[in-house]
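Fig. S4 source data, part A: sequence.
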Amino acid sequence: MKKIGLIVILTVLLILPLYAQVGKIAGRVTIENSGQPLANAAIILVGAEQGAYTKDNGTFTLTDVPVGSIEVQFRYMGYGTQTLEVEVIENETAIVNVKLVVESIGIEGIKIVSDRAKERQTPVAFTDIDKEEMQAQLGSRDIPLALVTTPSVYATDQGGGAGDARVNVRGFDQRNVAIMINGVPVNDMENGWVYWSNWDGVGDATSSIQMQRGLSAVNLATPSIGGTMNIITDPTAMRAGVDFKQEFGSGGFLKSTLSAGSGLINNKFAVSAVGVRKTGDGIVDKAWTDAWAYYLSTGWNINANNKLEFYVVGAPQRHGQNLYKQNIAVYDAEYAEDLDDYDPLALDEFDEGGREYNQNWGNVSADYEGKQWWNDDEHDRFDEEFINERENFYHKPQVNLNWYTKLNEDFNVYSILYYSGGKGGGTGTYGSIEWDYSTPTRTADWDATIAVNDTASAGSEGILRNSRNNQWTIGAISKAYYTINENLQTSFGIDWRTAEIEHYREVRDLLGGEYYYYDGNDFDTAADYEKVLGDKIAYNNTNTVDWMGGYLQGEYSKDAITAYMMGGLSSIKYSFVDHFADDGEGNEAEAETEWIKGFQVKGGSSFILNESIDMYGNAGYVSKVPIFDDVIDDGNATVAEDPSNEEFLSFEAGLNFHGLDGQLGVKSNFYFTGWSNRTLSRGVTNEDGTEGLIFISGMDSRHMGIEIESSYRPIYMVQVDLALSMANWTYLNDVSATYDDYGSAGEIDTLNIYVKDLKVGNAPQTQISFGTSLFPLEGLRAQFVVQHYRDQYADFNPFDRTDVDDTTQSWKIPDYTKLNFHLNYQLPVNFKGISVGVFAHLFNVLDSVFIQDATDNSRYNGFDGDHDADDAEVYFGAPRTFNAGLNITF
């Protein structure tokens, strides 16, 4: 009996834990004052071997917590630790939301130096997209496509090449949208454009994106007219771990991502790294990708008052491109025929190639053994059976060293020293190429060209060339913040940059010949005219850009009111050297501008009406320095004598609501931006016979509209999101200019431009995004996103409208709607610290046929030039595609 009793007691003791009384603790950890979520904060049950880390959105869940009163500790390096006593009830979830206070300099340094807006404080319109949201929707597409559910933001992948996306904000293209990564502007120093293929790996290392629309809160002299896309990469991880993600998708897409973090070492130092390998055949014909990417971040807490951070990011890549838009009928003749304004006669002029058609490649015999030259070395071609006419290859690393220092309780300084390199270019044909006219549009006939070159007596008649763009930029940004009293803070800073850019063409592929004859270099002798692989041809220039800027800002905050005012100056100088042109004295032709000055003034105020409602307003004026190409003509080394700045006047007012215990949030605003003195540079002949460059200015446009975004979560399992923007972007006036040109028949030339009341093109003026997210199980999220676009006018150059009888609106693209589906599931598996997640994305679920990009009255693919559908050249949106994979975290 004693033995039986002992067995019963032991059995009961073993079974009891299975029926132990347990509950859950869940909540969110945010940063005091800013309200931003704090990822990877540690939550520890005091006295128990149990804990968790917060997710990217700051949330956490602790399961199987014993009932009763228990101490829970919340901590993160650089923040004050909080310990709370929590009462846990059986089978219930105790909700605990915690705000941690910053105690160490530099903890929020990268956000401060990047001028990130804060909820209910910063008086600008903005949208935050955190890492969790990016992972839920992006599906390894180009970064701008993470913003398609943001009001007034339009992003497309254009021709479908990897990294060839573009983004438009409030009717302004990327040249007037500031793109910043970790506080450093990355817009091209010469023309303001952004090439997203250079940042192919940034999406995997991005912690969050903040899209500030309008002049924004950025105080650097950046082109933030339409807005500022503010990208923050992952901070150095405070916990050790390894994460592996494997993806596959349409078009033979394969991508592997490996991330690792050391965790905090000796409470001082940590390092994180990400490596990416991506390949694919492409959705569009021969728009393949072959890319790597890397990211490294380190953090060193020197002491409580000083912190250093080091970032390196880069993406060496090659990809086939689809750079030529086509007539609508080339992609889909049936779609074209159904359009009311497509002339049926045009169907006989354009053969159909299908939605995946790409003009920029051609077949080649596999027995052609010619080598190709790129990145300063010989290589085999990408594929032995075809050659891309247009291929991009580039590597643009960026290195940041950030120093955050606290001089005293009232004075902090945040500084960035950075380097950005660049090596690569794009391909194209040069000379006389044989063409194949049996395809829908002419394509290069490589075999015929090789045959001609092979028998030519004077070398290759036509070749493949590289257009190279090798560059480096060094810059420094330093911002000081001084607290005058508890209500008033001032800030001032400098922004210095210098860049050198080499532009030249070189022989990439001789296409069967022994050499290519080129005598356009004034410094070559006859012995140098026979060019072989890697030799420079066509042009060879070196441009420099020197930039100096500064600002002064004051901020006032008391009770419910926050206000700021800032003023900034910038000064830019350009120079140019033509290494092929003799200036007449045996030297290379050179050109240099004086320092060109610009400035900006802006300010705003926000007012918290109550705990649910706040309102804000802002206004600003920007005098923007013209880009390099508008000041120096790199064809003849002429400089505009008196370049004109473009001017922008903007104001904005908004009202925000947060209520129903956090279930409902609504943001709304009205904006107005006036673009005055838009300029055109034009070459002329001076009285002494030399060439000159003049500015024609005076074109004005108005960009105005309303924006609304809301999120409603009536129950835990359902969330509904809405984004709406309605706009009116219009050119306001015609332009008439007279100028001296001694190269024409008379000394006085007149230019008239007729654009009054024409709509600004290149983006839809009405956008609606509607999303429904379902959370049926813990860790599972299913999301449907509907995007609707209307009132989109085809892109056109307003300075080409010189016919008084041609005042027709550019072609209006048909309205379209598309549906995307996203599924993310963190499996309820955690074996010795190993967790697994799976995900799937289905883009364009209904396989809708639509046009996403268009150019009006194409000179290459138009029919009769009357601004109808048959005169536009377009890109169709991609058909139904998918991306799926799994994520393993150790």
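Fig. S4 source data, part B ends here. Residues 6-19 have pLDDT under 50 and may be disordered.
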